[in-house]
Amino acid sequence: MPRASYDDPADLESQSYEDRQKAMRAQLMSPLKADEWAEQHFLPTVICYALFYGGFGQFVAGVLELIKGNTFGGTAFSSYGAFWMGWFLLEFLMKEHPALYPTAVTGKTLWCGLWGFLTLAFFVVTLRKNVCLMTVFSSLVLTFWLLAGGVWNARCNQAAGYIGFFCGSSAIYTAFAFLYKIELGITLPGVAPVAFI
Question: Rounded to an integer, what distance in angstroms lies between the CA atom of residue 123 and that of residue 131?
Answer without folding.
Answer: 11
